[in-house]
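Input structure tokens:
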């Protein structure tokens, strides 16, 4: 699924940086994600099971959708609008998610 700078449909946007992440994946992973990222309806169907979605921010509406091969689709939701921001491995999400912010 080729993704240009920003792929849009009403209420659904896939940011261009997702294409960079997809370039690093093998063909089977790209194909598995392609169905989910193809349009808003497929994406919403993928998030229907709450077991596949994890909240990754306490202050903002950022979520990680579980995908095949240990991948996570990072997205935000504001009202009915969905923006897919990135695709990463769970290990990467764990690494950055475990960082503690230093106080001055």
């Amino acid at each position: 699924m080729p993704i240009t700078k920003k792929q849009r449909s009403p209420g659904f946007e896939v940011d261009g940086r997702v294409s960079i992440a997809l370039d690093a994946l093998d063909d089977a992973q790209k194909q598995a994600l392609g169905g989910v990222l193809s349009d808003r309806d497929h994406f919403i169907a993928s998030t229907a099971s709450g077991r596949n979605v994890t909240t990754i921010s306490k202050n903002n509406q950022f979520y990680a959708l579980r995908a095949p091969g240990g991948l996570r689709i990072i997205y935000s939701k504001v009202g009915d609008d969905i923006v897919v921001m990135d695709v990463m491995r769970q290990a990467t999400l764990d690494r950055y998610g475990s960082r503690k912010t230093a106080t001055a």
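DSSP finds four helices and six strands in the chain. The longest helix spans residues 27-37.
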